[in-house]
Amino acid sequence: MYKVIISNNEIGYIENIEEFKTKINTDLYSEEEKEFMAYYTINVEPEYKTVFVDKKTNSDETEILNKIKENSTITYLAYEITLNNEEKAYVSTIEEAEQIVEEMKQEIENEDVEMTLGIVQKYTEDLDSLKLSEKEEVEQNINTEIEKAVEIKESSINGVVLATKPVKETYISSRYGDTVDRNSGHKGLDIAAPTGTTIVACGDGTIKYAGWYYGYGNLIIIDHGNGVETYYGHCSKLYVSKGDTVSAGDKIGAVGATGDATGSHLHLEIRLNGVYINPQKYLYK
Predict the structure, then answer these.
(1) Total tally of structural domains belonging to the chain
(2) CB atoms within 10 A of CB 141
(3) How far apart are CA 79 and CA 118, in angstroms?
């Protein structure tokens, strides 16, 4: 018979080396264990030594296979689905990954948003760490990201995202284009709010102006780049100065009734290359 030795330890006996090596390839792991397996590595190769034994000695191949299995490592293969080059989910088969990507690409195309889907092979020795997902769950998560991208697109002007309403409105007291009590159409949007109500920046940018400006009273102008500027008029307080850098949601002032104002409100304007734009195309829809 043949004595099997692993790491200088005698494990047991086999009758035929070639048949046993075939069993290592076919029977070391169950079909269930092989489902996500890319390959396995035997960390310590068994040695075989010819020996004479008592004819009553039996081979113990099952026990030996278990010992070899204990000294081996499985490498699994899963498929990572990426959105804009960021990890979103893992699925078990390339067919499932390709189906998800194809269906979601159609959704992205329908919504006309800039998003990129991809598939990356992921090798790991810890399959549980990848947290494999069902197809429906992956598609739901990607759809949520698509919806967010649509919201951002709808609140963007010339590539600039106006992500935040400057005040929590009580009501819109005068809309863009209104001519009541005016010689010409209203160039902005008036949002009624109590004096002292916090005003925040609609988007990222640099303070172009912060001070008194004729009928606007205390005025803040933010330059967002790409020719986009937002104006915040009639402020009771200014929390920023010219040259300051702000992010969407940063406090910049407080609502008031300074300048030509009949009541406490924020006068909001959006200008693109100096041309007035209706704020309600992007905010307070």
Answers:
(1) 3
(2) 16
(3) 10
Q: Are strands 275-277 and 237-238 parallel, antiparallel or unpaired?
A: unpaired
Reference 23, options 77, 70, 69, 75; nearest CA is 69
Q: Is 176 left (phi over 0), alpha (psi -120 to 50) or beta?
A: beta
Tokens read off for 160: 């600039």
Chain centroid, CA 241 distance in Å: 34
pLDDT band at residue 64, thresholds of 50, 70 and 90? very high
C-alpha 262/C-alpha 266 separation (Å) is 12
Distance (Å, whole) CA 177 – CA 216: 17
Q: Are residues 39 and 129 in the same domain?
A: no
d(CA 59, CA 258): 97
Q: Are 147 and 202 in the same domain? A: no
CB atoms inside a 10 Å sphere around CB 48: 13
Inter-axis angle of helices 94-111 and 135-154, nearest 10: 20
pTM of the model: 0.62
Reported confidence tier of residue 184, pLDDT bands at 50, 70, 90: low
Each residue's pLDDT tens digit, 40-62: 999 999 999 999 988 888 888 99
Residue 161 to residues 56, 150, 153, Cα–Cα distance (Å): 83, 12, 8
Say yes or no: 150 and 239 in one domain.
no
Cα–Cα distance for residue pair 86/82, rounded to 1 Å: 5
Per-residue pLDDT, 208? 98
Residues 6+ apart with CB under 8 A from 184: none
Domain that holds residue 99: 79-154
